[in-house]
Amino acid sequence: MDQFKNLMLSLNQALEQAQVDPQLVSVVDSITNTCKNIAERLRGGALSGLYGSAEQENIQGEVQKKLDVISNDLLKQSLLANRSVAGIASEEEENVIAGNAEGRYLVTFDPLDGSSNIDVNVTVGTIFSILALPNSDPASTVTNDTFLQAGHKQIAAGYVLYGPSVILAITTGQGVSMYNLGADGVFYQTEDQIKVPEHTQEFAINMSNQRFWQAPMQRYINDVLLGEEGPLGKRFNMRWIASMVAEVHRILTRGGVFMYPYDNRDPSKAGKLRLMYEGNPMSFLIEQAGGASSNTQKPIMDVEPHYIHQRVPVILGSKEEVERVNTYHQSTSSD
Ligand code: P6P
Question: Are residues 12 and 124 in the same domain?
């Protein structure tokens, strides 16, 4: 990596070349610098004494890992200290937190997605989404409602993947680029204008939930599993990492379709994944890379949020496959 670093753009050089608002660059810097700190804590593994549960639950009713709490606190501290940040919303926090009166950007984030994988040393990540403060709302009145903007209003979105490499994927609405964290602590661009292959033979879903899915999803997966002899006429491979960031990274890298559909385990919930800081940012990345993202009825970024922790069914990835899943559901709705 070092031998090429002079040939590669740093994150800040790339954002400057793309003429990104300096205040937005400052917000991205706060996020990525904090993610470097999170990566350092993760690298310590069991030696860091940071494995295991924090012995407390978050607003989602999920038992938090120690690193969930630490990552959340680090991002809160860094973003609320940034004069460009008008407010933040976190998966780990019941309510939004107002930031700086002169701030123009709102940030939603999942500080450590896939954290159940930490203790087994499997890839996790930080997901973030950046919205503009509505002109009518001076920063001092930032409330939960200020954040309730549909995904197509996002200004920027991305993730930092803590895997064998620490990788940032980001979009500011001008395509998707990726950056590897160098030994010198700088994110260097390794990919630009990423494109998700339109066709795929790889699907990702938690099959153990099959009996809880709606009929159209069961029919689609049954047809996928029939392979070449079935109606789809091709063999599929399956992946499931239980870490959305890792699944989306694989899809941005080689295509595929990721599904966390509605299931009736808790009929009051539209799905497991959250709209504002999982569904929307990942959909922005996927659509900017030429893929598609749907709740089986409409693009996820067209879903109007009514609650900061609103959940949403997620089907995203290679366009042909997402559209196929939608067709299975629409034929039911037209029945
Ligand atoms: P399950 C992680 O907890 C997460 O929110 C996503 O990152 C991941 O795709 C999904 O939940 C895994 O859910 O039910 O398979 O553990």
Answer: yes
Cβ of 91 less than 6 Å from ligand 1 = no
In a domain, 197, yes or no: no
Ligand 1 centroid to 305 CA: how many Å?
21
Query: Are residues 159 and 31 part of one domain?
Result: yes
Query: Are 241 and 137 within one domain?
Result: no
Number of domains in the chain: 2
> pLDDT of 235-285, one tens digit each?
999 999 999 999 999 999 999 999 999 999 998 888 899 999 999 999 999
**SS3 at position 64:** strand
Check if 114 has its Cβ closer than 6 Å to any atom of ligand 1.
yes
User: Which protein residue has the closest C-alpha to ligand 1 atom 2?
Assistant: 114
What's the pLDDT at 140? 60
pLDDT beyond 80 at 212: yes
Select from 191, 213, 239 the last residue of a domain: 191
Q: Is 104 helix (H, G, I), strand (E, B) or coil?
A: coil
**Residue 206 near ligand 1, beta carbon < 6 Å:** yes
Contacts for 67 with CB less than 8 Å, ≥ 6 apart? 38, 41, 42, 50, 112, 115, 118
Cβ-based neighbours of 290, under 8 Å, separated by 6 or more: 195, 196, 198, 319
Query: Can you tell me whether residue 184 is helix, strand or coil?
Result: coil
158 lines ligand 1 (CB under 6 A): no
110-143 pLDDT, tens digit per residue, is: 999 998 898 899 999 999 999 999 987 565 679 9
Q: What is the pLDDT of residue 334?
A: 44
Based on the fold, state whether residues 236 and 288 are members of the same structural domain: yes
Q: Which domain holds residue 182?
A: 2-191
Mean pLDDT of the 39-62 span: 78
Q: Are residues 161 and 99 in the same domain?
A: yes
Separation of alpha carbons 163 and 124, rounded Å = 7
Ligand 1 atom nearest to 242, measured from its CA: 12
**Does residue 252 share a domain with residue 176?**
no
Domain end among 191, 222, 245: 191
C-alpha dist (Å) from residue 232 to 13, 220, 260, 319: 45, 9, 21, 15
